[in-house]
Amino acid sequence: MTKFDSLEENIRNNPKNVSFSDLEKLLKRYGFEKKKSSGGSHFLFR
Description:
Number of domains: 1
Distance between the termini: 27 Å
Number of helices: 2
Number of strands: 2
Strand order of the largest sheet: 1-2
Shape: elongated
Strand content: 5-15%
Protein backbone atom coordinates (compact mmCIF):
# COMPACT_ATOMS: atom_id res chain seq x y z
CA MET A 1 0.00 0.00 0.00
CA THR A 2 1.43 3.39 -0.97
CA LYS A 3 1.67 6.39 1.31
CA PHE A 4 -1.24 8.08 -0.46
CA ASP A 5 -3.41 4.96 -0.32
CA SER A 6 -2.82 4.83 3.42
CA LEU A 7 -3.61 8.53 3.77
CA GLU A 8 -6.85 8.14 1.81
CA GLU A 9 -7.87 5.13 3.87
CA ASN A 10 -7.21 7.01 7.12
CA ILE A 11 -9.33 9.93 5.92
CA ARG A 12 -12.18 7.63 4.88
CA ASN A 13 -12.09 5.72 8.18
CA ASN A 14 -11.95 8.80 10.40
CA PRO A 15 -13.20 11.89 8.51
CA LYS A 16 -13.65 13.95 11.69
CA ASN A 17 -9.94 13.79 12.48
CA VAL A 18 -8.37 15.07 9.25
CA SER A 19 -5.70 17.76 9.25
CA PHE A 20 -5.79 20.45 6.60
CA SER A 21 -2.34 19.47 5.36
CA ASP A 22 -3.39 15.83 4.88
CA LEU A 23 -6.50 16.86 2.98
CA GLU A 24 -4.43 19.26 0.88
CA LYS A 25 -1.96 16.47 -0.04
CA LEU A 26 -4.79 14.19 -1.11
CA LEU A 27 -6.54 16.86 -3.19
CA LYS A 28 -3.30 17.83 -4.94
CA ARG A 29 -2.68 14.18 -5.80
CA TYR A 30 -6.05 14.07 -7.56
CA GLY A 31 -5.19 17.15 -9.63
CA PHE A 32 -6.77 19.94 -7.63
CA GLU A 33 -4.95 23.25 -7.27
CA LYS A 34 -5.13 25.42 -4.17
CA LYS A 35 -6.18 29.01 -4.80
CA LYS A 36 -6.09 31.63 -2.07
CA SER A 37 -9.19 33.82 -1.98
CA SER A 38 -8.52 37.53 -1.99
CA GLY A 39 -8.24 39.16 1.40
CA GLY A 40 -9.35 36.28 3.60
CA SER A 41 -8.10 33.12 5.17
CA HIS A 42 -10.15 30.80 2.95
CA PHE A 43 -8.82 28.55 0.21
CA LEU A 44 -10.47 27.17 -2.92
CA PHE A 45 -9.52 23.92 -4.60
CA ARG A 46 -10.20 23.71 -8.33
